[in-house]
Design the sequence.
């Protein structure tokens, strides 16, 4: 098992969300992360990238860092507006992304910088019970 990092420019194209999911899965497999950790990361990465496309501004960038200790995803975009956790209505078709990150990520945050912000999250693998 080894550490892996990949970086991508995020096009203002919804197809990048699919590409993000594929990249996260591939990197998780490269370091043999548990399937549940990987699938949580896939969900949260796609939500974070979608937010950058819908609410952010170019330029946008995705960094995925995977190791046996877990995964860190960073999505930077050109707006300084921070994401907000909202209580989405049950019939809403959007508005749950940051709430999911808040619930499912081990840690997450927002790092403002001169040209915008970076939203990041980390997921540490859940220890597997020994028999």
Sequence:
């Amino acid at each position: 098992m080894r550490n892996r990092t990949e970086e991508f420019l995020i096009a203002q194209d919804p197809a990048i969300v699919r590409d993000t999911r594929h990249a996260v899965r591939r990197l998780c497999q490269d370091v043999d992360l548990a399937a549940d950790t990987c699938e949580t990361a896939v969900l949260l990465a796609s939500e974070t990238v979608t937010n950058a496309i819908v609410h952010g501004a170019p330029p946008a960038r995705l960094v995925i860092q995977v190791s046996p200790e877990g995964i860190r995803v960073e999505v930077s975009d050109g707006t300084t507006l921070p994401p907000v956790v909202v209580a989405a209505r049950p019939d809403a078709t959007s508005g749950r992304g940051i709430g999911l990150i808040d619930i499912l990520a081990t840690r997450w945050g927002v790092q403002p910088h001169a040209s915008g912000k970076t939203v990041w999250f980390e997921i540490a693998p859940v220890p597997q019970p020994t028999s």
The mean pLDDT is 87. The longest strand covers residues 70-77. The two ends are 23 Å apart (CA to CA).
